[in-house]
Amino acid sequence: MKRILVDELVEGMDSLVLLRGWIHKIKSFGKFAFVFLRDKTGVVQLVMEEEEILSQLKLEMSVEVKGVPVKNEKAPGGIEIQVKEIEIIGKTYYDLLPFSINEKKVKATLETELDYRYISLRRPDRRAVFKVQEEIVAAFKQYFKGEGFHEIHTPKIIASGTEGGSEMFTVNYFDRRAFLAQSPQFYKQMMAGAGFESVFEVGHAYRAELHNTWRHLNEYVSLDIETAFIKDENDLMELETGFLKDLIQHLKETCGKELEMYGITLPEIKEIPKIPLAEAQRILLEEYDKKSPAGNIDAEGEILFSQYIQEEYKSDFVFLTKYPASKRPVYTMPDQQCEGATRSFDLIYKGLEITTGGQRIHDYEMLRDNMIRFQLNPEDFGFYLDSFRYGMPPHGGFAIGLERLTMKLLELENIRAATLLPRDMNRMIP
Ligand code: AMO
């Protein structure tokens, strides 16, 4: 007999079906009971009369059930199962569940939930986060494939850093020192130039940042793109806007139930405002008396500026443009029309940076000179710099932090809630 899933149950089946899942809830009335069976698609009410097996059932056991679906308007989903046979196929070995799976409230801290990730994910609302995340990745791949991009997979064990600064994990690579990739930056540029022209990658990125905050992870998933023969950074912002519009539509079509669980109504995206960083800093100072660090805005500034954009432009998103060269990595293309600025941008979504991107320097000599200006030794960038000797076209790209995007879409308060198994300064398990 073929197993059917809870969401495949429909009225009028009236014949024996086979279900498998976990015991979600038991409501006993002495001689009979309503037992709720949960699988990955939903919960269904079982009607059971046999006292002996009832006394053996415990929450979260896994069971196999044969029964007849019948209409019952009072049952969740309008259908209940008259049980003919039930077998325990996965026993439990616990005294007390660490928190509730079947109540609205979890009654545990996020840290406890993460300690028991393998159980917290049994909660439909927690699994919903990862359904949405799965669909974000699906939409990303689908959109960029549709735009003629090619999927690549680049190494995560690398010989030198890409993003500047010292936020790198070191690993022993036989008798040498290596690093975990902070991003696929150099490789995606290389591949755009190598003939793929347009590439995307979904992969892990590692940051040894000493920030243990609601928005930082030490390992995150980066949605990267890079594309050749662009005119300037505006092409990239248009691409990202196109993707986000498509994503909203895709999530509406595939994640209705999940969005509803979190009370989320996704807005249509029209145009995303583009504001130069210096202008944003001025607005923050004038409107909110908020000072910004040189060449950037901080976490509080991002929140306040998003409020401003929401009020003035009715947009959840804003591109901050023209970041100063001194604050951007060595590969960033200077903006000849704006002294000291680069052709780079960040995208802020509901008060949080979710993307950095920009046009890159594609000229070999210009890149080498910029390395010297940044007090870097061009020889340390051997293979990367060398790849620019052979007709590297104008190119650029961006990267979206998957967990940050998921978190903001679902209005979660902590990035860890949008991470399957987070790695932060205190957490390496499970
Ligand atoms: P950047 O370093 O800004 O740019 O990273 C891009 C995006 O990745 C996400 N992100 C993080 N998410 C969680 N925890 C972290 N510690 C963390 N660090 C970064 C953010 C951020 O916007 N190579 C460039 C991208 C490019 O220009 O193509 C880069 O990595 O959402």
UniProtKB/TrEMBL annotation:
Naming one, the record's GO cellular component terms include: aminoacyl-tRNA synthetase multienzyme complex
Q: Which reaction does it catalyse?
A: tRNA(Asx) + L-aspartate + ATP = L-aspartyl-tRNA(Asx) + AMP + diphosphate
Q: Which cell locations does it reside in?
A: Cytoplasm
Where is L-aspartate bound in this sequence? E163, R207, T356, R360
Q: Which GO BP terms, alphabetically? A: aspartyl-tRNA aminoacylation
Residues annotated as site: Important for tRNA non-discrimination: P76
* UniProt cross-references to PROSITE patterns, sorted A to Z: AA_TRNA_LIGASE_II
E.C. number(s) listed in UniProt: 6.1.1.23
HAMAP family, per the entry? Asp_tRNA_synth_type2
What NCBIfam families does this protein map onto? aspS_nondisc, PRK05159.1
Q: What is this protein called?
A: Aspartate--tRNA(Asp/Asn) ligase
